[in-house]
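Suppose you are handed a protein chain with no further information: no name, no annotation, nothing but its sequence. What can you learn? This example shows the usual starting point.
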Amino acid sequence: MKEFIISIDQGTTSSRSILFNLQGRPIYSSQKEFKQYFPKSGWVEHDPEEIWNTTKKTLIDVINKAKILKGQILTIGITNQRETTILWNKKTGKPVYKAIVWQDRRTEPYCKNLRDNNKETLIFNKTGLLIDPYFSATKVKWVLENVPLAKKLMKKKQLLFGTIDTFLIWRLTKGNIHATDATNASRTMLYNISSNKWDEGILKLLKIEKNILPQVKDSSDDFGSTHSSITGKSIPITGVVGDQQAATIGQCCFDPGSLKCTYGTGAFVLLNTGSKIIYSKNRLLTTIAYRIKGKTTYAMEGSIFIAGAGVQWLRDKMKFISKASETEQIVKSLKDNKGIYLVPAFTGLGAPYWDANARGVLCGLTRDTGPKEIIRATIESVAYQTNDLFEAMKHDGLKPSLVKVDGGMVMNNWFSQFLSDVVNVKVLRPKVRETTALGAAFMAGLHIGVYKSLKDISKNWKLDRNFTPKINSKTRNILVSGWSASIKKTLTNTI
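A reasonable first move is to predict its three-dimensional structure. Written in structure tokens, the prediction is:
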């Protein structure tokens, strides 16, 4: 009989379930999109019931496919959009408010107040995170202060909080398990990454009761089993990991110094620092990469807000292209960038600048400039932003020697080569593109003994193509200097 692992990949715009074989190859995938809600400027919400229903439908679809293939499902892994916050009634299971999405900026006043009261160093040293609306903590505080039912239920010890993984586990197990893993906990701004516990001091500061928080387990662990009324028969859930950490696992970045970059709507670089917590002096984040058998592996993380979103802008707003794949031929048709740079600070700048008020800048225009040049500048900007993160890591004493890449943008061979040229390291692209879902499947399989170790998991990683730097240091320095000058025109803060 064939044996499979299911990975639930609950993302920002859609829910997916993927059937993997034990060699880490995707066999079948089911995906359903759901609605995004924008009730006010800077607010982003999801309906938790829509998340649940789309997840359930894709999961059942994949289970039925496994039956057709006469296969056995051994276990389920879950990966998820990370900081998105849900609070629900413990007795009824009903959310008290919509899910507040990681992109939501409504809690900036809370964050500013914390920063003004000199809490940033305290919180950074405990959680590895900078104070920002991005993380879950101030989202929880907002719900407690603005939804009377939430505060009432918390006082009665009938309120539960969770990131999306926790909510799905609760629903899949019919309320038997209220748990998360260490990677998701580390993105809440409530979790002490040194002690590996919820931080009593931060909870007190934000007036959040500890009883609403889930149990924090390893990334490869027993998260209960699905209820037979949902999945036909009970299936164990044995792997849970936040999406960017899951991609790190899917890329088999298990050695200290190894790193991956995922190029989706935004881009996220994670560098494995091993058992050592390294606090960045250059405004990168410190986070938990994974925790296995009680042993924590840490990572340094940098986030880029606009990567694939820049290509969407070229297509939907500028109307320069009709589909993303057209960009490769267009950028290849130009010999160079003609001194043109785009800084895509459409929603501010992420690491290492963290300038929420920065806005996009297009530099170096001449009468000769047309859509092709702007397209190239947009694609190039993603490589330059990645290089900014690499430089910040170098200033923190970390020297990346290669990077494993995934996400839609890296299927553009020209971009992958240009990235290698600019960051000046080898770029490796894997055969399996679904690295995030794969990471959750690996963690689930590890717990039940399908994989004996991380080394055993690594045997399943296969190279599609590598890219090595081809330009000389003089050319590279000219390109990067042009970008640095453009960034300076964009920034509104002083770092």
